[in-house]
Amino acid sequence: MARSLVSLRCATPADAPTLAELWAEVLRRTDQVERIADLVTVIERAATTDGQRLVVAEYDGEIAGAVHLHVATMTPINLEPIVFAVSPHVFPRFRRHGVGTALIDAAVSYAEERGIGHVATGAAAGSRDANRFMARLSLGPQAVLRVAATPAVRGRLTAQRPAGQRPGNRSGRQLTQVLAARRSLRRSQTPPSVGSH
Question: Whole-model pTM?
Answer without folding.
Answer: 0.78
